[in-house]
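tmp note - CDP-diacylglycerol--glycerol-3-phosphate 3-phosphatidyltransferase
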Amino acid sequence: MFWTLPTIMTWTRIVAIPLIVGVFYLPIAEPMRNLLATVMFVVFAATDWLDGFLARRLNQTSAFGAFLDPVADKFLVCASLLVLVHLNRADVFVALIIIGREIAISALREWMAQIGAGKSVAVHMIGKVKTVVQMVAIPFLLYDGVLFDRIATGLWGQWLIWLSAVLTVWSMVYYLQKAIPEIRARAK
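out:
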């Protein structure tokens, strides 16, 4: 199951990272770099939904795919946040909240799986909402322009990335609350 179509699509999100970062070093006008990076992010982020759909539809789900999918998502989001901080389009505090949460919850899930309590920290709706808000905020901030002569994507992106940070903390608290009984039981 290492080279199925869904897994290859997941790998493309990881391969996309240097491509998206590299766009900002091309000798082209900033609006074109912004547009190119935005389109690339949206296309590669869409593979997150598509690879899961195809894995289920083609009966190609695997433990490796289940491991790689969230890793690819986190790499793509974290790398994009670092680019946005570098471009002064996202606050470093927001990036620290989001990246710190991803590391903490990934470690928590790994530990909970090792002790046989992984289901207690399974993905919840608040985590999914957080991801959707991030996946809208990031391309808005990458584009950093005006869409349809009405939508200031930089401004909307700022609001959404801060909302994402709030949802990030909320989801982290939720997962920690679910894990606390197991943590207390193991601490004795």
